[in-house]
Design goal:
Layout: E1 4-6, E2 13-15, H1 28-38, E3 42-44, E4 51-53, E5 83-85, E6 91-101, E7 104-115, E8 127-138, E9 142-145, E10 150-153, H2 154-160, H3 170-180, E11 185-187, H4 192-195, H5 210-215, H6 220-223, H7 225-229, H8 232-238, H9 242-248, H10 258-262, H11 269-275, H12 279-287, H13 293-299, H14 306-309, H15 315-324, H16 332-344, H17 352-355, H18 360-375, H19 379-390, E12 395-396, E13 400-404, H20 408-418, H21 426-430, E14 435-441, E15 450-455, E16 458-463, H22 472-482
Parallel strand pairs: 3-5, 6-11
Antiparallel strand pairs: 1-2, 3-4, 6-7, 7-8, 8-9, 9-10, 12-13, 13-14, 14-15, 15-16
Helix pairs in contact: 8-9, 16-18, 18-20
Length: about 500
């Protein structure tokens, strides 16, 4: 029985609900799970692309550490939760643990901060800190955060799913983030069978998703809101469509048949089950019915572009073309931009040499430059004139050099190499809203390394490829450069 205490208005006596408040309170089996999982993280060296053992820091050989022989092969996959970028200043992850107590079901959220960064050494040095971030009491229609006494109604969460958060309150935005944030999270699955025997979770089939949850991302909604608020969760799990159940149950409304539920013919169900189809892959399948799972996976990140692409090419044609060019699915959006340029410049897309140019990247960059110049003939000259002034800010040390963008083409080339949208910054530069600089290795001046945005003499953005953060050595170089910058006053800040 818990301790009897007064309510905050001192007009009632209530029973305090006891729970574990620190790591030392948890049973040894749960502590071992947390520690074992934490030490299973795979380290990724961004500079070399090498995968390292988190215990020995040795480069893996066929997924196995040559020193301690730990096998990381199960975790070497694109969507793995277990990869940390080496020398990131701090890595944050969470562990969820269910506990069945006499007054109901508790769900613990344990937070871990891990760092392999040591400013005094070039060698990795691990530090970790564990705290109990939240303790939820799970009920049939809501969950209660026992540490803050806040209640989260499932009906309110359902209304939030379709809300425009640009015009919503901060409280609603935080509530949505609480349930739907795709954090790096791990679930203690050893007691899920016990959980499924309770009245609350008896008809959810939640114990059947444990194999999926071990190696895939999930949300707080996956453990509470979806299984307890939607009967569809149980149906999707029984159909072995685990990703749909765990990530987007609420998207599936009740229907009389398979096609009403999923928007496609039932003949595609065996494929959906075999590949454990995701929501984005299902969107591709609905727009482009196919039994080729490689097509669904290849275009899943760009499903919103498919309608436009299909006006000119089939998805098989485009995938084969990009494969021949040795380009990944990242370039689907670039190909869409290329088609848009062709249309606006009046090129004949029935000509195969135009539809599928022999050297895509070069032709894409050329047409993009022609499009920008056609839209504003003076833009390129303005960028060039400004670069002459900004050349006073060219700076280098023994490793790096930094210099200003000097043309639309240089922006397009940087955008192509870095997979960012700095190519759209031409007007901002030409109208003096910001300045863009390229930071490169001195011995590789033509190879993009860091894209830098400057406003009012201050660095406001500095990103490596795919908009990743720079490392400490790069940061120190930029800080030295920033102190001697020739400032040019600008207007407002935007993102790459």
């Amino acid at each position: 029985m818990g301790q009897l205490i007064f309510s905050k208005d001192f007009n009632d006596i209530i029973e305090e609900k006891k729970y574990w408040k620190k790591m030392e309170d948890f049973p040894i089996s749960i502590r071992n799970f947390v520690l074992d999982t934490s030490h299973s993280f795979l380290l990724n060296d961004l500079e070399t692309g090498a995968k390292l053992c988190s215990n020995c820091y040795k480069k893996l050989e066929n997924g196995i550490c040559p020193s301690c022989h730990k096998n990381y092969q199960p975790f070497i996959q694109e969507n793995s939760n277990y990869i940390i970028n080496l020398f990131d200043k701090e890595y944050q992850c969470y562990y969820y643990v269910f506990d069945v107590v006499d007054y109901g079901i508790l769900l613990y959220k344990i937070q871990e901060f891990t760092s392999y960064y040591n400013p005094l050494s070039l060698l990795p040095y691990r530090t970790s800190k564990f705290t109990v971030a939240n303790v939820y009491q799970v009920l049939s229609d809501r969950i209660i955060d026992l540490m803050t006494n806040k209640e989260y109604s499932f009906d309110r969460i359902e209304r939030l799913e379709s809300q425009d958060f640009q015009n919503s309150s901060e409280e609603d935005a935080n509530l949505f983030s609480t349930f739907f944030n795709l954090e790096d999270s791990f679930l203690y699955v050893a007691n899920l069978d016990q959980l499924s025997q309770t009245d609350l979770y008896r008809y959810t089939s939640i114990e059947k998703v444990k194999d999926y949850i071990i190696t895939n991302k999930f949300m707080l909604a996956t453990l509470t809101y979806f299984p307890l608020h939607f009967p569809q969760f149980e149906y999707l799990v029984k159909m072995k469509l685990y990703d749909l159940a765990c990530m987007c149950t609420s998207e599936f409304k009740k229907g009389h048949n398979f096609k009403e539920c999923f928007g496609i013919d039932k003949k595609y169900y065996p494929l959906m089950k075999e590949m454990n189809i995701t929501w984005d892959e299902l969107l591709v399948l609905k727009k482009y019915p196919t039994l080729d799972s490689s097509i669904l996976r290849f275009f899943s990140r760009d499903s919103w572009l498919i309608t436009d692409l299909l006006k000119y090419v089939s998805l098989e044609q485009l995938k084969n073309y990009l494969d021949q060019q040795k380009l990944t699915s990242i370039f689907i959006a670039d190909y869409h931009d290329y088609l848009d340029c062709c249309v606006k410049l009046g090129l004949n897309l029935k000509d195969k040499d135009i539809l599928f140019p022999p050297h895509f990247i070069e032709q894409h960059n050329l047409l993009l430059m022609e499009k920008y110049i056609a839209e504003d003939p003076e833009m390129n000259q303005k960028i060039y004139n400004l670069s002459k002034i900004l050349s006073f800010n060219i700076y280098e040390d023994q490793d790096y050099i930094i210099f200003p963008a000097d043309s639309i083409y240089s922006l397009i080339d940087e955008s192509s190499q870095m997979s960012n949208c700095v190519r759209t910054y031409g007007e901002k530069i030409a109208t003096n809203q910001c300045q863009i600089y390229f930071m490169r290795y001195k011995n590789q001046k033509d190879k993009s390394l860091v894209t830098v945005e400057v406003r009012n003499g201050k660095v406001v953005q500095a990103k490596t490829r795919f908009n990743r953060d720079i490392d400490e050595k790069m940061r120190m170089f930029l800080q030295k450069w920033e102190r001697q910058l020739l400032p040019i006053i600008v207007k407002e800040e935007n993102d790459f």
